[in-house]
Amino acid sequence: IESRDVDALRALVADLHESDLARLLEALPPADRPQLIELLGSDFDFTALTELDETVRVQILEELPTQTVVEGVRELESDDAVYILEDLDDADKQEILAHLPIPERAALQRSLDYPEESAGRRMQTEFIALPPFWTVGQTLDYVGETEGLPETFFEVFVVDPTYRLTGSVPLDRLLRTKRGVKLGEVVTPDRHVVNATDDQEDVARVFERYNLISSPVVDDAGRLVGVLTIDDIVDVIQEEADEDLKALGGVAGDEELSDSFWYIARSRFSWLLLNLIAANLASFVISLFEGELERMVALAVLMPIVASQGGNAGTQTMTVAVRALATRELRASNARRVVARELLVGLFNGVVFAVIMAVVVFARFGIADLGFVIALAMIINLLAAAFGGIMIPLTLDRLKVDPAVSSGPFVTTVTDVVGFFAFLGIASLWF
Amino acid sequence: IESRDVDALRALVADLHESDLARLLEALPPADRPQLIELLGSDFDFTALTELDETVRVQILEELPTQTVVEGVRELESDDAVYILEDLDDADKQEILAHLPIPERAALQRSLDYPEESAGRRMQTEFIALPPFWTVGQTLDYVGETEGLPETFFEVFVVDPTYRLTGSVPLDRLLRTKRGVKLGEVVTPDRHVVNATDDQEDVARVFERYNLISSPVVDDAGRLVGVLTIDDIVDVIQEEADEDLKALGGVAGDEELSDSFWYIARSRFSWLLLNLIAANLASFVISLFEGELERMVALAVLMPIVASQGGNAGTQTMTVAVRALATRELRASNARRVVARELLVGLFNGVVFAVIMAVVVFARFGIADLGFVIALAMIINLLAAAFGGIMIPLTLDRLKVDPAVSSGPFVTTVTDVVGFFAFLGIASLWF
């Protein structure tokens, strides 16, 4: 790049897949990234930008001259173009749109007008829609001879004169049908038609559940407006799983490995602050029993065990509940059964660990009563953990709050508070 | 079902998609499930079984008469048949295979001979392979007129006389090429050919990275043996994300919502036992400072805060590290940078929370020195959390141990032990 040896660079990237080109960009120092793109000019495939982390992509787009971005975006399929534009701030977005020819601008603008994370944002607006009276032969000839069709497609759609979707005909069926047959006779209505305003997560569930490869997208009036393909959906599935996993670990769903120190420190801080408040609450509970702790220091030594065991058991139950809610496996119809089972598991493991700890404590301190106290506290806390672990996500879900993001602090607060309170409380009554 | 009203049942399921049929089965009491399948006879689509949880599927298959299973399996595509058979125990598997006609048996047996979770297990062995000297016209006619082709396909493969893969031609390209052109002239070699012994997780990464819809599968000699489609891969992606998420929450990757109480209680128990050992280790650390705790009960009240804050910060770092390792975003090339950043974040948040807690403690207990002690312990533990949170997953990954499964207990042990030791240790030196 430094020597501006364009020919060598072009030769280097000519054979690269867009994903590999994206990796190459990420490996470069930030300042060199826009430079490489400019040097390559039209040899740079803007599709590569869709494979980058958001932070890196926005940084590159902001540094590139508008004209370069406009030309790059024009080469893209509509879904990729939307993907690249949607993260830019409004001013930049409008500037780029203003430089596009009117039909392309209108199409992109319409996609961008759909809500964030909706099917309308992810769909491709290039597709083949034909009337039902066309024959298979006509269709095959049309597909074979027309320029400017979508780059890849798996089916043709059949629409009525008002562009309402009748159904679709997959390419392999088209090939296996006699040329004289009319499309109207071989078309099958799509079992699940996606609405452009549907949330991408719901759409992903439909794709997974019915093993779809692609699906037409219609507007509220039932008119065909685009097509969603599975490769876009794979990214959605991956993203959603990613967000849930990170949320459960107390990390913002959009944190990326390429984010700056400052962004990460701030985003992790808020979660830790919440935890600090919870920990102070638990500490307050402990302080209620200062007298007991002074009289019997063994209580201070043992109390974190009950709390920690509850925290882990609660996290187990919560993890299962959050995941099952996300995949819609946990529904109102089976919630009662799952809650009952979790409580039973909590009780069972509570009793087992109660026995183990009673023995350990007796061996360590030689006080049988202390073993009994910790055993009772263990059972109570593991039951509380099971109850909190399942009821908190269920309740948050019913309140339309994402249980993956918010369950953790509540559950550990419950297990800490109940753990310390049960152990020290029983001890204060006993001794 | 009770009234054995077969006609009504048939009418009921006739229009159901296999996924909905699977849901219906799951909603039934276990004893009724095989009964429904028998009543429906050949109207029951065995594909529905692939959409069930493993536990439910195995239970149904074990109760059905062998002959019913054999007939059902014969109707399936090869990948679905393998999916259904692979979880059965060897005796049942062999019995069913023995009842199949020899060619089908051999094909299934070959797929089952590939290692578990390999591409060979997931692939479909029905595909269209043609020689390069065929013309596009010939191909289109062949596809249009031959019976018994795969139910759905997106491309034809071109092979040499020894069945070695040359490449593939997608259907849409086939349609857009003149009939006289030879396949050898339009074929493109596949950029990434999957080997039948490749691990399904690695295959899923390739599909995601290159946005593939389907990919040929070859054996070690480069001969075409099957085709993998994205809908199978979506399940793999979903499963792998699921396993990581559950593992981080301390739950076995294969725990399903339909599992029995007994199975779940046992599988969660082992993780909790590990945690109990870690908690007892932390408790032992506390017991080293019994003297200090007796002299100053405020130490007992405050010590869980430092440990808890470290545990959460460590979990944050670990979650990011585990996920980035799973998606191959965290590599040797950027590990150093990520470790440095995590330590910086740990230091930063450590200092911020140190200041907050110093103020809180001074306000609560009026002892300035105690505030200073907790502040110092907080910084040390948040640094330890960052270090453990990133180095433990990296080390486990290098040792070929799945970091998602094993990192958690190590990280919280580190933060608990360091947290209690730092706080109580500094206090014992200070006061």
Keywords, please?
elongated; Tetracycline Repressor, domain 2; MgtE N-terminal fold; mainly alpha; homodimer; 3-stranded mixed sheet; 431 residues; CBS-domain; 66% helix
Query: Could you say which overall geometry of chain A the principal axes of the C-alpha atoms support?
Result: elongated
Reading off the top of the CATH hierarchy, the class of the largest domain in chain A is best stated as Mainly Alpha
Report the span from N to C terminus of chain A.
77 Å
Content of β-strand of chain A: 5-15%
- Side by side, the strands of the main sheet of chain A go 1-2-3
The fourth-level CATH homologous superfamily of the largest domain in chain A is SLC41 divalent cation transporters, integral membrane domain
Give the averaged pLDDT of chain A, no decimals.
87
Order of helices and strands of chain A: HHHHHHHHHEHEEHHEHEEHHHHHHH
Give me the count of strands of chain A: 6
CATH topology of the largest domain in chain A: Tetracycline Repressor, domain 2
Q: What value does the Rg of chain A take, in angstroms? A: 29 Å
Number of domains of chain A: 3
Helical element count of chain A? 20
Largest interface, C-beta closer than 8 angstroms, per-chain residues? A-B, 100 and 100 residues
CATH architecture of the largest domain in chain A: Orthogonal Bundle
Give the helix proportion of chain A (percent range). Answer: 55-70%
Helical/strand content category of chain A: mainly alpha
Largest sheet of chain A, described in full? 3 strands, mixed
- Uncertain runs of chain A: none
